[in-house]
């Protein structure tokens, strides 16, 4: 039996049992949804008047779109800084220098252990009292710094795990053509690890986008803040929050599909197969020091 098979395929009786369980599960979920919607309708929460104000120009131009823009702005800045942070400290975790390796390990493990909300509260107070940034911008930068430190630490671990999961032959090939350990890491191993971990990296972007909603607690005017403000003014807080949730779900679902598309594209790529009689194509980056020139390259220079 193949080692990749985790369990035997179900027989006719097993398939009937699985189908019965699925039908019962769908029925239970449908019943729960019916009870929830019926309860909301009994309290007047499903009336058209509660929903109509959500689809006006005032709601979108003054509340939902500005809130969404603030959310995306904080998430975009945090994503860029998290990648930079993760690359620097991920390389630190892989460094042969013990001091730098130890510092990177302490920083990464510390910020992975601290809750994001606690860091947001701390940096909001710190920025507001220190005057490093204008008082009105302290919530924004508190959200960005907190998301960067936490998610950057996760990215650093992704980089480290990605390099460790590469075949040892990658490093040996780099050293064989005259690269140092650091050059092999930067030019061969980390680029391949980044490609391999790209779906997981995009999945981490979803986490950053969702965690940006925590900025509401420290007064950052993002989508959740504007949704609650609009709902309180129009007596439809539940409906406004449901709309905000639908926006978050749509964006996160789109990012998830992008991650799946990237994974399929990366899985479909591979080294070009050599025809019979042709030399094998070696996937080493061009221009590496010590890499011998091919006859075609030498002819072009002549």
TrEMBL record:
Its main location: membrane. Belongs to the binding-protein-dependent transport system permease family. It comes from the Bacteria. Keywords: Cell membrane, Membrane, Transmembrane, Transmembrane helix, Transport. PANTHER family: AMINO ACID ABC TRANSPORTER PERMEASE, MEMBRANE COMPONENT OF AMINO ACID ABC TRANSPORTER. Residues 269-302 are annotated as: Disordered. Residues 68-259 form the ABC transmembrane type-1 domain. This is Amino acid ABC transporter permease. The chain crosses the membrane at residues 20-43, 63-90, 102-127, 139-159, 193-218, 238-255. It is found in: Cell membrane. It is a multi-pass membrane protein. Pfam families: BPD_transp_1. Gene3D superfamilies: MetI-like.
């Amino acid at each position: 039996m193949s080692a990749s098979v985790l369990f035997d395929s179900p027989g006719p009786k097993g398939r009937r049992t699985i189908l019965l369980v699925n039908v019962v599960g769908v029925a239970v979920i449908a019943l729960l949804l019916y009870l929830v919607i019926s309860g909301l309708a009994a309290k007047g929460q499903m009336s058209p008047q509660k929903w109509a104000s959500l689809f006006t120009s005032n709601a979108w131009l003054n509340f939902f779109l500005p809130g969404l823009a603030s959310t995306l702005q904080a998430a975009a800045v945090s994503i860029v800084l998290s990648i930079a942070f993760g690359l620097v400290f991920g390389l630190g975790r892989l460094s042969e220098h013990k001091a730098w390796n130890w510092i990177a390990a302490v920083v990464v493990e510390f910020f992975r252990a601290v809750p994001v909300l606690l860091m947001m509260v701390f940096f909001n107070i710190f920025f507001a009292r220190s005057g490093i940034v204008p008082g009105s911008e302290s919530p924004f930068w508190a959200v960005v710094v907190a998301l960067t430190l936490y998610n950057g630490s996760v990215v650093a671990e992704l980089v480290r795990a990605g390099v460790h999961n590469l075949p040892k032959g990658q490093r040996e090939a780099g050293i064989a053509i005259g690269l140092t350990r650091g050059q092999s890491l930067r030019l061969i191993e980390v680029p391949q690890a980044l490609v391999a971990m790209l779906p997981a990296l995009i999945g981490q972007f979803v986490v950053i986008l969702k965690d940006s909603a925590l900025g509401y607690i420290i007064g950052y005017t993002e989508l959740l803040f504007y949704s609650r403000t609009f709902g309180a003014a129009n007596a439809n807080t539940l409906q406004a929050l449901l709309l905000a949730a639908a926006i978050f779900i749509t964006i996160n679902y789109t990012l998830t599909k992008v991650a799946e598309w990237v994974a399929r594209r990366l899985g479909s790529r591979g080294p070009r197969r050599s025809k019979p009689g042709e030399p094998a194509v070696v996937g080493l980056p061009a221009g590496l020091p010590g890499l011998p020139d091919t006859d075609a390259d030498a002819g072009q220079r002549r």
